[in-house]
Amino acid sequence: MNSHQSRRFFVIAGATATAAWALHRTLPTWPVEASAKPTMPHDVVIVEYSDQGQNVGKKTVQTIVKTDAEWKQMLSKESFDVTRHAGTEVPYTGKYWDLHDKGLFRCICCGTALFTSETKYDSHTGWPSFWQPLAKENVRESLDSSFGEDRTAVSCRLCDAHLGHLFDDGPQPTGLRYCMNSASLRFVKFA
Questions:
Q1: Active site residue 156
Q2: Domain assignment of residue 82, yes or no
Q3: What does the pLDDT average to over 156-183?
Q4: Does 167 fall in a domain?
Q5: What is the CATH number for 110?
Q6: Residues in contact with 2: Cβ distance below 8 Å, sequence separation at least 6, in sequence order
């Protein structure tokens, strides 16, 4: 292979790898526990919050279980792909990655309070990131081994909506990064 052919090979290989990575980031990923997802409602305990971020208290409620057709009627295509099929939005495209307003982030599917602007920070990843959830009771963590790597998937405890992933490279005081998809959240600004 001469130097011109060698250069062409590396340019094509690099472009192919970049395209494959971009495609990987936009295709739905399937958590290992997908088959274990409940299909019947069951009781869970969540912590309710007012739209001003006030803790209203713990409450036992039944999980929300709907068909794909029912979810599709109430969600945008992107929110459906992310929340119901563990997709990932393209970085720097979601509406909340650069939001600096004070408020509460709720689940787009069921309205459960998940995160607050007080724990949001700029992770330089292109997704809204938080160093802790509003209440541990409101999120569920599970193993996601898609694409040959183990990650911790984060879901809404009430409706099992996929929210994003948890990493251990965040700031203090927790050292955690809850890297969420804007398409899985609904922001409620504090008055």
A1: no
A2: yes
A3: 97
A4: yes
A5: 2.170.150.20
A6: none
Q: What total number of domains does the chain contain?
A: 1
117 falls within a domain: yes
Angstrom distance (rounded) from CA 34 to CA 60: 24
> Which residue type is seen at 44?
V
174-190 burial code (b ≥16 CB/10 A, e <16): eebbbbbbbbbbbbbee
- Condensed to tens digits (0 to 9), the pLDDT of residues 42-63 reads 999 999 999 999 999 999 999 9
The reply to whether 102 falls in a domain is yes
Print the domain residue range for 64.
29-189
* 146 pLDDT tier (thresholds 50, 70, 90): confident
| Six-digit token string for 83 | 């929340």
Transcribe 129-144 into DSSP letters: EESS-S-GGGEEEEEE
HEC string of 35-95? HHCCCCCCEEEEEEECCCCCEEEEEEEECCCCCHHHHHHHCCHHHHHHHHHCCCCCCCCCC
The tens digit of pLDDT for each residue in 106-137 reads 999 999 999 999 999 999 999 999 999 999 99
DSSP state of 15: H
User: How far apart are the C-alpha atoms of 186 and 154, rounded to whole Å?
Assistant: 16
Q: Which of 109, 156, 159, 179 is catalytic?
A: 179
